[in-house]
Write a structure and sequence with these properties.
This protein has about 325 residues and is mostly helical. It contains 14 helices and no strands. The longest helix has about 35 residues, at about 5-40. It is flat. About 30% of the residues are buried.
């Protein structure tokens, strides 16, 4: 493929994906809105509690637009969304939803970013090690350990690590925290003590998955004819693996980027709640308990947008690293 044709193809693919992204986000806004509309419980009645007054109740329902038909509420919701207005919280009077979420976004992004980096930096070498020693005791041991790491639920690992940290702290009196986060994107020792355990736990399942994915792909590639030809030319095993086999084996890993983002978001909810990390997942859980639907809807849209954007980046990278791939 010529350089100009490749550039045109990438732009065409990017435009198609952006159109698809907009449609997906619109579909997500509709689903999240309808789920909030049909959910049991009246948030205004819950907000008033023992101070329930019919007049105040009617005024508040009118203020938040809850006395309108669902399609008018959705129209207002979309209008505000296109003007970057995520609405107003029910439980925190007159406070914009973004004002609530903006403090948690940097923390959740930091947690997910470092977990994703560690997943790939650790998972790929482990997969290569297992593939190049396939059938040996080290391969069996690492494969078994990775399978255990992948199957143990995140919330169980969180509780186990917290109990372990408390026990070690009692034995050594080092003052290691079991909850909180520290300052976002700051890495002095005081902040790192909060962040190490949650980041490692969140990345654990991804490391196992990427390692197994790398191992199976590499084993498939090293049995192909061109690898046997490379060995027949007398190239060293290191050159055969790292220069010829690994390059092709790692291409499918690009597709894991979007999938990894989805898994990270799911894991983040457990991590932030159990470690009391003030990220958007923790804010969402508290909003669910308080029937604060505008915050729940805004969080769902932000997270869905992140996943869709990750898949778009994954598609773009895939087309760049393997020009043979074409998208419909």
């Amino acid at each position: 493929m010529m350089k100009g044709e490749k550039g045109h193809f990438v732009v065409q693919m990017l435009v198609k994906r952006l159109v698809g992204l907009i449609l997906i986000v619109l579909a997500i806004t509709f689903v999240t809105f309808i789920l909030g509309y049909m959910a049991p419980g009246d948030p205004i009645r819950i907000l008033l509690g023992q101070q329930f007054n019919p007049t105040v109740y009617a005024l508040l329902r009118h203020k938040y637009g809850l006395d309108q038909p669902w399609y008018q509420q959705y129209e207002t919701f979309l209008f505000n969304l296109f003007h970057f207005n995520l609405g107003t919280s029910y439980t925190q009077t007159n406070r914009p939803v973004w004002d609530i979420l903006k403090e948690g976004v940097p923390i959740s992004v930091e947690l997910g970013f470092w977990a994703l980096v560690i997943e790939f930096l650790v998972g790929i070498p482990l997969g290569i090690l297992a593939a190049t020693r396939a059938g040996t005791w080290s391969d069996t041991l690492s494969t078994g350990a990775l399978l255990i790491a992948y199957t143990i639920p995140t919330f169980i690992t969180c509780v186990f690590v917290q109990v372990l940290v408390v026990w070690v702290d009692q034995q050594t009196n080092i003052g290691w925290p079991v909850a909180g986060w520290g300052a976002p994107w700051h890495y002095d020792w005081g902040d790192l003590r909060y962040k190490i355990a949650p980041i490692l736990i969140l990345s654990l399942g991804g490391i196992a998955y990427i390692a197994r994915f790398t191992r199976s792909n590499l084993l498939e590639v090293i049995h192909q004819d061109y690898i046997r030809t490379a060995r027949g030319k007398g190239l060293s095993e290191r050159v055969v693996i790292y220069r010829h086999a690994l390059r092709n084996a790692l291409i499918p890993l690009v597709t894991l980027l979007g999938l990894s983002l989805g898994l990270l978001i799911a894991g983040t909810f457990f991590i932030e709640f159990i470690f009391n990390i003030p990220g958007i997942a923790n804010i969402t859980i508290r909003s669910v308990m308080a029937y604060d639907y505008p915050v729940i809807q805004a969080t769902a849209i932000l997270l869905a947008f992140g996943v869709v954007l990750g898949n778009l980046l994954s598609d773009l990278l895939y087309s760049l690293v393997d020009p043979r791939i074409k998208f419909a």
